[in-house]
Amino acid sequence: MNLNQNTIAGLAELLETAELQAHEVVKITEAYPEMDWDDAYAIQNEILRRKLARGAKVVGLKAGLTSHGKMKQMGVSTPVFGWLVDYFSVADGGEIKHSELIHPKVEPEIVFVTKKALKGPGCHIGAVLAATDFVMPGIEIIDSRYKDFKFDLKSVIADNCSSTRFVLGGQATPVAGLDLRTLGVVMEKNGEPVAIGAGAAVLGHPAAAIAALANHLGARGEEIPAGTMILSGGVTEAVAVEPGDHVTLRIQSLGSVSTRFI
Ligand code: 0L1
Ligand code: MG
């Protein structure tokens, strides 16, 4: 690691304040180009520590930048991982206050819920499918705290991978008999399809994103516990939303989920 604890704490405060007050900041590698991967995850962890100290609860995990569409959109080439806390959760059909966010975008996700713990290294899609209780459709709302949604990989990891809200569909579907690669995904904004894809866009198979998360945590001596909800990453590019927009996601065999921005 190249940053000291004071700097990590200061950068965590900067990014969390930007989130809570809905304002942009300059990407942190401008001032700290020496920041390394461990520093980036240490800042992310410090933001979580601050939230837990104020009573927030972790309700899930996420993989991000797992599709070619997203990697191309953001100009990066490696998946990233983050956490989701209770106040990020929005009910299916519920409203999201646009004014609480900076420049939100929505992305379609295949969401896993585990029934067994998953631990890397060596986790693969077979282990993930064996440990999956069910899958659901989910809309993730991302909101980079960085100016103009522009960042590098280390800055975005520190910013908890732009996480801000998520909406889960109410239909829980077991994976047995489903080919998650060929599931069609259609996201509509105000009744018009704005993003269309299939599960294979996520690392060839969405379960590969969950395996990558287990391997990432395994390298840190951690695991994905049983009963964990995990967003496997946007199937398509993310789409910007404005107040008044209504977003619906339909995933073949998994049902639908929607939200509205006010
Ligand atoms: O969930 C995601 O794919 C977000 C990863 C971070 C990059 C971004 O803000 O698009
Ligand atoms: Mg996502």
TrEMBL record:
Organism: Dechloromonas hankyongensis
Signal peptide from the UniProt entry: none
Molecular functions (GO terms): 4-oxalocrotonate decarboxylase activity
Residue span, Fumarylacetoacetase-like C-terminal domain: 104-261
Keywords: Lyase
One Pfam family here: FAA_hydrolase
Protein name, as recorded: 2-oxo-3-hexenedioate decarboxylase
Entry EC number(s): 4.1.1.77
Keyword Hydrolase belongs to the record: no
Cross-referenced PANTHER family: 2-KETO-4-PENTENOATE HYDRATASE, ACID HYDRATASE
Keyword Lyase: yes
